[in-house]
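Q: Predict the assembly, please.
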Amino acid sequence: MAVKNKKKPSQGKAGREIDKISGIETTGHEWDGLKELNNPLPRWWLWVFILTCVWAVGYWVVYPAWPTISGHTKGKYGWTQHKQLAAGQEEIREIQAAFLAMLRRTPLTDVKKDPELYAFALTGGAVAFKNHCAACHGTGADGMAHYPNLNDDDWLWGGSVDEIYRTIKYGIRSSHDETHISAMSSFGTDGILTRPEILAVTDHVRSLSGLGEDNARGAVIFQEQCSSCHGLDGKGDRAIGAPNLTDAVWLYGSSRDAVSSVIFSARNSVMPHWHGVISDDKIRQLALYVHSLGGGE
Amino acid sequence: MSDDGNNGGITYFEKQQNIYPQRVWGRYRKLKWLAMVVLLGIYYGVPWLRWDRGPHVPDQAVLIDMPSRRAYFFFIEIWPQEVYYLTAILIFAALMLFFVTALLGRVWCGYACPQTVWTDLFIWVERIVQGDRNARMKLDKSPLSFEKIWKKGLTHSLWILIGVCTGGAWVFYFNDAPTLWEHIIHFDVPWSVSSWIVALTASTYVMAGYAREQVCTFMCPYARFQSAMFDEDTLIIGYDEKRGEPRGKHKKGDSWDGRGHCIDCMQCVNVCPVGIDIRDGLQMECIACGLCVDACNNIMDKIELPRGLIRYDTASHIEKGTQLKLAHFFRPRTFWYAALLTVLGAFVIFGLTHRSVVELHVAHDRNPLYVMMSDGDIRNGYTLKILNKTHQDRVYSLSVEGIETTKLMLQNAPDAAIETLPVFADSVGHYRLFLFAEKQKAFRSNITFIITEQQDGIVTEQETIFISGEGR
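A: Predicted assembly structure:
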């Protein structure tokens, strides 16, 4: 059913034409025989429009707005997004400061006892990890060939939170005086072992973790050349970062080629030290984060 | 542009015509008063109703608790992830509006709409202070005087007071009412509360004090589309043209032969809160409040003619002059609306009564997908969220189906007993879990996490995956 939207005919200025069908005054203009009805907008529309104009002028005055030859207008109160951001970050830093002070006072092994502090440390550690560590160890800390997976329970230099802290702080074979240091001989390039001998040791080493057939000759060479660091049973030595060769985790790969290549030319990869590069607070958070990934001891 | 938007005699902007609704008595006016008292009573009173839900949970019957992300409506409690209930209720409300409109026309507009109720209240205040229609018109035209200042001042003060009460009542729905009341009388409220009070005071004052019928005419979408829901059997306010026309002044004693019953007394126009003449036919502005019906009936009584020259009726009856029958309300349109409402209502009630009190969400770690441990086992990481919607602390035990696990371990609590996962009352328990298993043949295995609530034995399952891959 049609609902009429009928306006009272305008009181009408003298001589104004009234449209017969709608009973509404026309504007008097004619375009190709069409006449426009005069349905005035409510006056408050005009006022709202004027108000928005005034509002816009206020905006120009208060906020940076207009480009000039040498920059832009600065706004009455000098507001910028940079300053707002800085103020916001300052606020966050103040909140963080209290937690960081508490974290500094707490031995790393005790942090877990305070769930709130622990959550703070892990959150900070996760961010720092993505900033400083993810390039080598991956965003999920699962590493890649030549870069250890930090999620597993296999640790070259120890997996307690204090040992992880030390490793992050001073690095491995880094330029810091306190760094972890050890070197595996390059049995091939230094001419200690011949190629057939290296392949024999390779087979023995792989057999320690159940890969492939054992090799008696390789076992003898292993006793002579490798056991001083890796141990007679091949279980390695954390004091010198010698890997455990009997487990399933291989830093440089477990294929025959990969293992023989390590024995031939050694690897001795380097982890940089972070002491003096990032704050000790961050290193502490990182240690707790890495320790929490599932393999921490 | 000149000040009045007047360009060569053509007006682009029309000044608002003030409307001075006149006082009226009658059946529909009484109904409107009743509706106002009931609706305002509900609005102001509901936050004060208490509802005992046990310890740790608010005991306000209706409370939308934003900080803890809960909504309480009597026996119903809604968590954020159940907001679809709200959707269902909104759809139900919309359908209800369609149904009532098809049945009874714009009764919502005339009696129940907040804009109508508060405008009515404001007009009442205006009348108490400044007098009825003629007095108000005279006062507005009169030059500034002491009388004008105090009358206008008192009116506006009372309006603002009502506005404050409106805004004040609104915030009680979002806070514990008695506690907030203590804070309010000590002027100790957070800015979020005070700014809501200010905003709602201002909007009540502007909307009910100034904008009034313009809200219905220019802003309200319902006014625009309600005509699509009308048909010739919808109840509307109609002027019986056959009986009324030709209209004209009538002197007592004159014959009614050859003329209509409308004596052109303008009462129906004077009482109209939206300022229309109902005798021009049904118009978009008409909110079907029935005040013109009351006004006309009073006149008809006075001149001893039957009532109902202007009445609630359907367009077809007014056209044909037949009697309104109850049967006319039953037609396909109203039937289908009622059917839809029943179905939807059943769904909502079923959903609310069969709401689960525990939910389990399991997210499998994506980075890394899996980890090979030194003993060759594969480890997968999961984040568990256990939603305990009961109002008591509960303990859940966990088991895994679909894979032979060698170890289950909570992150950072390697020694904790995995079968007891405590979750506090009315909260979400977060657990990081590591699942160890021997290397699988398949890269991806489907597994199920099962938690059993220890007290009531409610079992909840969630399917997830176990990823098994190669070491290096």
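The CA atoms of residues 201 and 308 of chain B lie 40 Å apart. Chain B touches chain A through 39 residues (CB under 8 Å).
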